[in-house]
Amino acid sequence: MTTVVLFGSTGFLGRQVKALLSEDPRVSRLLCPGRAVLDLLAATPDEAAGLLGAARPSAVLNCVGRLSGGYDELLRGNATATAVLIEAIAQSAPRARFVRLGSAAEYGPVEYGHSVHERDPARPAGAYGISHLAGSLLVEQAAADGRVDGASLRIFNPVGPGISAESVLGRAGDMLRRAVAERTPRIELGPLGAYRDFVDVRDVAGAIVRAAFVPELAERVINVGSGRAVTVREAVAMQAAQAGFTGEVRESAPASVRSAAVGWSRADIRRAWQVLGWQPEYGLGESIKAMA
Known about the structure:
This protein has a domain at about 5-160 and about 200-225 and about 270-280: 3-Layer(aba) Sandwich (Rossmann fold). The protein contains 9 helices and 12 strands. It has helices at about 10-20, 45-55, 70-90, 125-145, 170-180, 200-215, 230-245, 270-275, 285-290, and strands at about 5, 30, 60, 95-105, 150-155, 155-160, 185-190, 195, 200, 220-225, 230, 250. The longest helix has 22 residues, at about 70-90.
């Protein structure tokens, strides 16, 4: 029997992972504990160990995280929750594969035109990236210490069905649909000149499932992106065309605190292919159509 425990199954990424695992013949039992069962943002290692000890999983996947909030909230959601699961797995499910989701924000500013590799220095520009880098470092250290068999997947800019309004394309999509419905001549967003590597959430889910089942993890940190950078402006223009919006997109709102310091981001995804046998299948146009 192959049991998988998936945390965060109702979120943007977690829903897609749950859908794949629900149809995967390798999975005989899928457990998706919600906050009422175990709130990772408040749980102790012993509480998590009790749940995992009863489940006896072959894989533990964590899609829980924080995109915004104070320093304490970001650290708890993106690093402390990781530490709790590492301790719980080491205590009660030592043979389980552990996969957590990191972020491209761990790298910080990158030279224009450079495809960032996992070996490149990680110099996050804000608390969000710092909190995720702490989680990735914990996984690397725990693996080096023989406490957990795990990996941290550095997700670039996930887009696609179910996207959250906390992301720029999620906000833009909501505003464009409302503008079309209300016949509004313009919408206002922040600066859109930054280059981003947009990767479909369905492709991200595929990488997570591959990381859960690949026989051996030769690396502990793995980029998950499209390997292509476009300006946010170009992506929003594609959204506007999809929505049938012909008005003006103004770039007059404040910039995002989470990513304002990073003007260029593109993933080197060769390691994902070498370690996981994964590569993206969906293009940005397909992702935007699925967001409509």
